[in-house]
Amino acid sequence: MSTLDGVTYYKSILDTVGNTPLVQLKETGKGLPCPVLAKVEFFNPGGSVKDRIGLAMVEDMERQGRLKPGGTIVECTSGNTGLGLAMVAVARGYRAAFCMPDKVSSEKVYLLKAFGAEVFLSPTAVEPTHPDSYYSVAKRIAAERPGAVLMDQYNNPANPAAHYATTGPEIWKQTAGKITHFVAGMGTGGTITGIGRYLKDQNPKIQVIGADPVGSILKHYKETGEMSEAHTYKIEGVGEDFIPKALDFSVVDRVIQCNDHDGLNMARRLAREDAVFVGGSAGMATWCAFQAAKDAGPDALVVVLLPDTGERYLTKVHNDEWMRDNHLLDPSATSAASLLGSKPRLRKLISVNAGEPLKRALALIEQHDVSQLPVFSGADVVGTLDEGEVLRTALSDPKALEKPVDSIMGAPLPVVAANEPADAVAKLLAMRNPAVLVKDNGAITGILTRFDMLQFIAGGEA
Ligand SMILES: Cc1ncc(COP(=O)(O)O)c(C=O)c1O
Fold first, then answer.
1. Ligand 1 midpoint to CA 272 (Å)
2. Rounded to an integer, what distance in angstroms lies between the CA atom of residue 13 and that of residue 287?
3. Pocket of ligand 1, candidates 159, 167, 191: which has the most ligand atoms within 8 Å of its Cβ, to mutate?
4. Distance 300 CA to ligand 1 centre (A)
5. β-pairing, 435-440 with 443-449?
6. Is 187 in the pocket of ligand 1 (CB under 6 A)?
7. Is 348 tagged catalytic?
8. Residue bearing the CA closest to ligand 1, atom 14
9. Spans of the chain below 70 pLDDT
10. How far apart are CA 218 and CA 281, in angstroms?
11. Of all atoms in ligand 1, which is nearest to the CA of residue 79?
12. According to the model, what pLDDT value does residue 98 have?
């Protein structure tokens, strides 16, 4: 921070890396015996915890004399570390080149290119040792291009060191040394190793807990010292199928595993309940922190690190369709309004007025293929016509078609507010209501049937 004639400012964007806040997870953490505080790393200028190691690894290479003016920063990454390094490269006057598999989303490529970085895409389906793999390409560029250096976050000691020097002391100071448990996801292991080591150096009693996605080998390795087979999972940036050198398991007391469903739905709850908009790995770490907090007692103080912003996952965890297609959507983590928005055929609510004749209702049922027809009197819902009941009445007494709908209508359908969780809708549907109405800003905006709910839960399979 600089001050000149009373003007306070930073000389470089890099001066804003670190010093992120601790925020209590009040709503999602309700009912736990102790507070859970989140170290919210999306406050870094590149939107993730990796800005810290981007800066630290570059400064370390400069100190070693391996990175000189005009040099090129090389790394194999499509993710947050790339963005952190690309930012540091601009601010420090280096070139940057990133190598990644061609399966990465175009947004990630554009993001790196926005900082003027070069991007090399390699075929996804080749072994790491193949000359065309992204790892081999990165090594080749670093070896052949004068002044180019491979950052290698998985093996670079400057990665955990960055957290020992900054994130660890920040948490210690922010909690006035009262922290009892620290929880973080593990990818390279740099975060948990650096912070865990610093915290244990201050107070060896602090529990350091790793969060691991189901499918990764890290939990099994920590507990048995043996390698196992990895399986795919959807949570990004964490979990491995090998043991990175930057991960020192001696500072990790235990590892809690979390599946895709629980981790990703927790990320959605953090946005909806605590207004903390983060990625899937943050949801996983939070879920694990809550498990730890449940056993921790009232005097504990749990800190969980949330690595990045949810904006990087708008087409994934924060997208209802993607969650549904992957059979991960939890109705409690979505609203009645988004349930309505997800209906394959979006249309205005089909309804009749109380005084209209039954034949009008029959025509609407036929024309729009609806099973339930809400009956309105002005802006109020006063009843419901059920397709089966209308047909039965019309067949037994054709003259009834001229009668007003309110003469045969049933009780009105229950109404839920648009912002209520979708599981409230599910509960009402399970209680023999064939459908529920959704109210937004004082007006009924749509109807949700049992079939809509099933389609929502089961995706294209219902
Ligand atoms: C989104 C996200 N979460 C968590 C991590 C894990 O942090 P670390 O690599 O320090 O173990 C990463 C690392 O890539 C990440 O990108």
1. 23
2. 32
3. 191
4. 25
5. antiparallel
6. yes
7. no
8. 237
9. 345-347, 458-462
10. 15
11. 16
12. 97
C-alpha 252/C-alpha 166 separation (Å) is 19
Q: How far is the CA of 166 from the centre of ligand 1 (A)?
A: 16
Q: Does residue 156 have its Cβ closer than 6 Å to ligand 1? A: no
Cα of 308 from ligand 1 centre, angstroms? 9
- Residue 258: per-residue pLDDT: 98
Q: Which domains does the chain have, with CATH numbers?
A: 17-46+159-318 (3.40.50.1100), 69-146 (3.40.50.1100), 332-461 (3.10.580.10)
285 lines ligand 1 (CB under 6 A): no
- Residue 74 CA to ligand 1 center (angstroms) comes to 18
Q: Is 79 in the pocket of ligand 1 (CB under 6 A)?
A: yes
What is the separation, in whole angstroms, between the first and last Cα of the chain? 57
Angstrom distance (rounded) from CA 393 to CA 386: 11
Beta-bridge mates of residue 383:
375
Give residue 91's pLDDT: 97
State whether the beta carbon of 283 lies less than 6 angstroms from ligand 1. Answer: no
CA distance 134 to 221: 27
Q: Which residues contact 266 (CB under 8 A, 6 or more apart)?
A: 28, 283, 284, 286, 287, 290
Q: How many residues does the chain have?
A: 462
Q: Using CA of residue 291, residue 426, residue 444, residue 377, what is the dihedral sign?
A: negative
Residue from 249, 257, 256, 279 nearest 266 by CA? 279
Ligand 1 atom with the smallest distance to the CA of 281 is: 3
CB-based contact 438:418 (threshold 8 Å): yes
